[in-house]
Amino acid sequence: MDDAWLLELLPDGVVVADAAGSVTHVNAAAVTLLGIARAQCVGSHLSAVVALQDLDGNDWYGCVSPYDGIGIRSRMLETSWQAQSGREVLVTARLHRESPGGDVAVVSLGLRDARSRERVDREHSDLVATVAHELRSPLTGVKGFTATLLSKWDRFTDSQRQLMLRTVDADADRLTRLIGELLDVARIDTGRLSVRKEPVDLVDAITQQLEPLSAPGERAITFEPEGKPSVWVDRDKLAQIVANLVENAIKHGDGHVTVRLT
């Protein structure tokens, strides 16, 4: 392979075998996952190099038979196998044929440590749990106040109704912000997050974020700015940061929050 060195840059293991099942290339990641010396790989049969088994002791090569089967088979979905070291390895395969429906000319395998997948899955599960928890709080407030207003509208004074509606409005803004942050996370993962910088007066920007978080009689928030600095930032991202910091202080503090700008 003329560009075999490129495979060495990949974080996942790669094993390539020719039409006879002889391994032509194996990268460093695959050597580590399989627990076999590189010198024992190239030229050896694929079944000897990828000596993986399932929990019942069945070997990978015998179970998947990459060179047999119907002629339209071109890939194998990811499955879990055990290496001799006991490490769990996730294996995918591509079958490259000489012609449509013809014999398999090249088998290329992708190997991945299952621990990295487990870590990603765990991080996703933690994210879902965190999001569900963060969304539940403002949703509970919106539902509670709207239900109360609908069922007992005449029992409240105008000032009480306005207070409830302001709280609902603040919770709705918080929901919008949380959803926006989730979308930002998705954009970061795909490299599509855009940042629009502009001159922003920090005092005015922070004050705008603190006002809806300060419900009369419930939360005490003191803002102590020094000077009136202007910065070159993304206004919306700054608002997210300030709101998150203050909300965490309110949630985990003693009820009084002081914001100092120095």
CATH architecture of the domain at 10-117: 2-Layer Sandwich
Low-pLDDT parts are none
Approximate shape? elongated
Q: Mean pLDDT across all residues, rounded?
A: 86
- Count of DSSP E strands? 9
Tell me about this structure.
- This protein is about 45% helix and about 25% strand.
- The chain has about 260 residues and is α+β, with helices and mostly antiparallel strands.
- Among the domains are: about 10-115, 2-Layer Sandwich (Beta-Lactamase); about 195-260, Histidine kinase-like ATPase, C-terminal domain (Heat Shock Protein 90).
- The strands form 3 sheets. It has a 5-stranded antiparallel beta sheet.
- The longest helix is centred in the middle third of the chain and has 39 residues, at about 115-150.
Topology:
Layout: H1 4-7, E1 13-17, E2 23-26, H2 28-34, H3 46-49, H4 60-64, E3 75-82, E4 88-97, E5 104-113, H5 114-152, H6 158-189, E6 197-201, H7 202-210, E7 220-225, E8 230-234, H8 235-252, E9 256-261
Parallel strand pairs: 7-9
Antiparallel strand pairs: 1-2, 1-5, 3-4, 4-5, 6-8
Helix pairs in contact: 5-6, 7-8
Entry keywords:
Heat Shock Protein 90, 9 strands, 5-stranded antiparallel β-sheet, single chain, alpha+beta, 45% helix, two-stranded antiparallel sheet, 262 residues, 8 helices, Beta-Lactamase
Task: Offer a concise description of the structure.
By secondary structure, the protein is α+β, with helices and mostly antiparallel strands. Among the domains are: 10-117, PAS domain (Beta-Lactamase), CATH 3.30.450.20; 195-262, 2-Layer Sandwich (Heat Shock Protein 90). The chain contains 8 helices and 9 strands.
